[in-house]
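Researcher: Here's the sequence for the chain we discussed earlier.
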Amino acid sequence: MPGMSERPSPLTTARSRADAGGDALARVRALWQAVPRAALGNLAAKLVIVSLGLAITVMVARQGPKVQGAFALFVAVESALLTLFSGLGLWLARQMSQQAGHASLRALPMLTGVLRAAVVLGLVAALGLLSVSWWAQSLPYSQLWLLALAAPFLLLVPTATGLWLGEGRMWPINVAQVAAPAVVLAGLVGAGWLTQDNIRRAPVVLLVLTAWVSGKALVAVLTAIWALRHASQRDERVAAELNQEGPSSRLARFEQPAPLWQQQWGFVATIGLTNVVSLLNYRASLFLVERFHGLDAVGTYSVAVTVAELLWLLSSSVTVSAYARIGHPDRAVASAMTVQAVRINVLATLLAAPVLLAGAWWALPWVLGEAYQASLWPLAALLPGVAAYAAASSLSAFYTNHLGRPQLSGAIAGLSLGLSFGLGCLLVPRWGALGAGVASSVGYIGAIVVAYGVFLKHAGLPLRALWQPRVGAAA
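Model: Thanks. This is the structure I predict for it:
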């Protein structure tokens, strides 16, 4: 009839739906193909690390929420120590990645310098930890003397692995990351077998913390030796190749004194302070819960945090594998890689979040005990924010490794910390761990929106770059 549009035939409709479905499938395949192959290897390593970490968590958590709470706070203090001085390793990674494929700097002098600095700074930190342990009366702060003994060695891993991170070599990093929890778990199992039924709560805490710091210190020393050997061999190989080419500007530059981290101490210090703020963003809620509700509540809430952060497995793997390329000196290359990483990270975590929650709802009380039923609702509150914040690692790598402005990462983390801590001060006294989960989630979401806007400004990209792949690729 006139004035009426012609209806599409059922066959046409079916074809349109098939085409739409094909397009969607093609996009998923394209996204999967865009995942760096090195990220899959790093993801596999992360899965092993998480499995070992969960085994340690199960062993500790089954001793009761109070023991788990003390362990979680102890590890948080250790993480603060590592992140405060993490700028050394990232400075080295940036020096290596900024060479953009043409060897022009000697790695061994740079690595030796940052390793020496790591040992000295670890000794200084040990004095502070001993002072706190001497005056503290409660767990876990009274046991920080254990961390003080290991402090000079613990900083070696994040410093030495900066060499491989800047080169884009994932497997040595994977080995170092897997070895630490494996050695810790082996030591914990062995000590438990030796003591058998004589373990009580306080000795369990001491046993766990001793196994933790001694295992990580051993792996740290071995990692530093491995990195030094690799740097020496790399420099010898590069020197031989350049000598074969004959006199050149590249050879002349290679033979010049390597840069010293002291010359960019402001960059190193800014990264350390930025990472501490980032860590507080993740862990300040634990101390809030302890302040208002005690170690038992920290124990159950820390399990919720641990499970929620499993979502960051893929995002951290993608960022680590792409770190060298994100640091490329060409803005178009760096921004395109960053957009690709953000896209993969956010989509993967959004898809995984409901699956993770469903599995945890069934598994946590069964594996850890009924006391950890209290972890479930805080976990549900955390997941939306954790999923959104999966983009943060790639954006932070762009700010730090490409722009050389780690203060931008610090400002974003500070914004998230301010939102979550301020809201947490209102919600945690009333709602406990659930309030901490809600506050953290709100802080993550608010900060990541701002972080993406800052990235777009510096990358010169439009807002639609995130969901239109061609825009990011054309950058």
